[in-house]
Amino acid sequence: MKVGFFILVLLIAGTSYSISKTNFINQKGKDKTMVTEVNSYVHFHGAPTKGKILMVASSPSVSKQTGWPIGFWVAELTHPLRVFQEAGYEVELVSTEGGKLEMDGYSNPNDPSGYSAHDVISLGYLQQKSFTDMLAQTKKLTDVSVKDYVAIFLVGGQGPMYTYRGNKDLEKLFVSFYEAGKPASAVCHSTTLLLEAKTSNGDLLVNGKTWTGFADAEEEFADKVVGMKIQPYRIEEEARKIKGTNFKVAAPFSSYAIADGNLITGQQQNSGAAAAELVIKQLEKK
User: Fold this and answer.
1) Whose CA, among 130, 205, 211, 268, lies 20 to 30 Å from 252?
2) For the CA atoms of 63, 60, 249, 21, what is the dihedral angle to 10 degrees?
3) What pTM was computed for the model?
């Protein structure tokens, strides 16, 4: 009996489901009562993985604008990571140059500024040795093969403004996922890659696409917080110069993500989980 039950559980673990339904129940002598049920799959310890997702982060750099050491925004790694792991997917993290990664200071929940002190998801991951080991040593993005992964997810931060834009290796990798019909996702400043990334026929990947990224209003807010211009250019401003594409933003720092075909984009650091959920939604359709 126990063996049969365990096999049944494993079979269920290989199936993802999400049910949200509303039923109106008639009760004698009473008004109709609305009952809402929500049921979502959560991967349990020891269950087989459903596939591997490639996440890419910026290697450490130095901002030419501020002089600060820069890297990746930790919430844009941890929040999607939680979604992917709970959905049953394994994650491999690579970087633009390989080696050790450094998070942007303001994104660290332990930073004295307190800017991200509310980020308990990142705080939790930072307590895990497996997570800190992952940051301590990464492969270079050129050392991976598209065939080994079911999706790609680009982590943002301040580093990508220097390490992603114009990075032909990363453009080729991202476009390879996209043209293979696999979910190709980018959030926040990592969407700078889409300003120049082209498909194999020479067209911009975002040609005819609706997408999002870090908003001008959010750049204004960040500049005021630190008292100086942080970024060398603005993604929204540059995106709106591109003819034949539809760049959209929502309210500043709200969770906002868009899927246009298998191109998935998120506006900023609060949109990572929403973008990851769109990735999972596409993977579960296959």
Assistant:
1) 205
2) -160
3) 0.89
What domains are defined for the chain? 52-285 (3.40.50.880)
Angle formed at CA 92 by CA 183 and CA 133, multiple of 5 degrees: 150
* Element spanning 171, H or E: helix 168-179
pLDDT of residue 6: 38
The whole-chain average pLDDT of the chain stands at 91
- Residue bearing tokens 């501020």: 66
The rounded Cα 42 to chain-centroid distance in angstroms is 19
The strand pairing partners of 40, in sequence order, are 18
Residue 30 CA to its chain's centroid (Å): 46
Rounded CA separation 114/70 (Å): 17
Instruction: State the residue for tokens 């065939």.
Output: 147
Residue pair 191/265 in contact (Cβ under 8 Å)? The answer is yes
Concatenated DSSP letters for 7-74? HHHHHHHT---EEEEEEEE--TTS--EEEEEEEE--PPTTPPP--EEEEEEPPPEE-TTT--EE-B-T
pLDDT band at 286 (very low <50, low <70, confident <90, very high): low
Torsion sign, CA atoms 206, 211, 217, 220: negative
